[in-house]
Each structure stands twice: as C-alpha cells, then as structure tokens.
Amino acid sequence: MEKKFGNLKIIVAADYDGLSATAADIIAGQIAAKPDSVLGLATGSTPIGTYRALVEKHKAGLDFSRITSFNLDEYFPIKQSNDQSYMYFMRENLFAHVNINPANINIPSGEVADAKAECAAYEAKIAVKGLDLQLLGVGNNGHIGFNEPCDFFPKTTHHTALAQSTIDANARFFESTDDVPKHALTMGIGTIFQAKRILMVASGAGKADIMQKLFFGPITPQVPGSILQLHPDVTLVVDKDAATKLEGI
Ligand code: F6R
Asked: How much is the pTM?
C-alpha cells in the first residue's frame, strides 16, 4: 500500500522482509539512475534486511564501484575493530559483500583524540560531495542519527551524549548497560536535511507511536525527526505493525 501526503510518500509493506525488499529497490533505483551516487547510510537493527537485499542485488549485478557512502554516526570513543562499532557493523552487513571502493567509505572515527576536529572534517567532506539519498532509522524517542531530543535542532556533525532511553535501547547489543557507549559522533539535523532524498525505514509495533508523532505531530526538537515534515522528498517504508497509528493509513 502506498500513499502520498505532500512531499511525504508512505509505503506500507506486509512485513519486515517486504519492507527490506522495498527499501533495497529504492536504493538500487537510485544507483541505477546515478551510478556515482553519494549514499548516506544508517546502522541499527532495521536496515539489516535492506543491506541483505542489496547484497543479493549486487550478486545479481548491482554495481557499487562508483558509490560513495557516509554513515550517520559512530559511537565515541570506540575502536573500529570493536564488534559493536558501526564501522564493524557496516563491514559485516554490507561493505564486505559488495564492490564499494574502501576509499569511498566514510564513517566518523571513534578512534581520534580530537572529536571536534573529526566532526568538522566530516561535515566539510559531506558538504563537498553532497548526499543524494540518506537512509534513516528512527529511535523510539524520535532521534535520527544520534540527534537526541533537546531544545534545538543541532545543525552540523557533532559530538553528543546519548539519551538514557537510547543507551537502554542499545543495551540489547552489549553484555550489560554499563558497556554501552554513552557518547557518539553524529551528522547534525542540518547535515541530514541537505540530502536530496530521505528514505526512512521503521519496523514493529514499538515504532507505531513515534511514526505518528514524527510525520503528523508538531515539528519540535523534542522529536528530532519531526523536522522531516519540512523536507521536500521523504519516503517512509514501514511494515504493518509500525503503521497502525499513522493518520490516514
Ligand atoms: C543508526 C542511527 C539510529 C538508529 C535508530 C533506530 O545509525 O543513527 O538513529 O537508526 O536508533 O535503531 P533500530 O533500527 O535498531 O531501531
């Protein structure tokens, strides 16, 4: 099922596999239309199926050789070799399985001493390249990247403290909550917003409330992703369970 609300297109898939296939089709379409696309990528559990589907498409001929990627965020500090780092995640789930040029992979480094300089350099590199399509998940609290609810929309790539709700949500990947990193480097809302196209994926009943708030509630930095209501080209791909509270669906 597909519906348009102004600049927002909502696609409701039957289930997680359908969502993943649809999101991968959209990304593959972007690559077909522009083989040297700059893709903004996300981690988290939701895009794993999308990456799996993209790997299958690569086996069938989808060419990543001219693609440049910029990931949304990385824990800080963290070694790239740590199996919880987002660099590790991206290698495991996508990069090791497609023909992307390693020189064209960009993820903020959690290994540097100077986080501020790393963020400024990352922002500058994105500004030069531009983002053709940004893939996003969304936190239960409405965060995109690691832009947590606060009193303003952070503009550029920055060093941030994670919200307790994010630390709790991420604890499922670690042995204990104490092991979850408390800080991250993340693209800002302005960085994300400059992408020509936004593709958001959300799955499961746990995301139903935030879906409604994000796209049909007030635009507020307390729900950071609500800013996407102002973006000219947003596609939201949800499964049925995440769509139950969406207005008009
Ligand atoms: C990941 C990221 C986060 C996640 C969000 C949802 O790079 O920036 O905003 O997209 O926390 O995570 P999942 O998909 O695990 O529910």
From this structure: 0.98
Task: Please report which confidence band the pLDDT of residue 120 belongs to, taking 50, 70 and 90 as the band edges.
Answer: very high
- The verdict on whether 73 is a catalytic residue reads yes
For a substitution probing ligand 1, which of 16, 72, 87 has the most ligand atoms within 8 Å of its CB? 72
- The model's pLDDT over 81-118, given as tens digits with 9 standing for 90+, comes to 999 999 999 999 999 999 999 999 999 999 999 999 99
Catalytic site includes residue 247: no
Determine the atom of ligand 1 nearest the C-alpha atom of 42: 7
Q: Where are the beta strands (DSSP E) in the chain?
A: 2-5, 8-13, 38-41, 68-71, 73-76, 105-106, 133-136, 158-161, 183-186, 197-202, 234-239
The full set of domains in the chain, from first to last, is: 2-224 (3.40.50.1360)
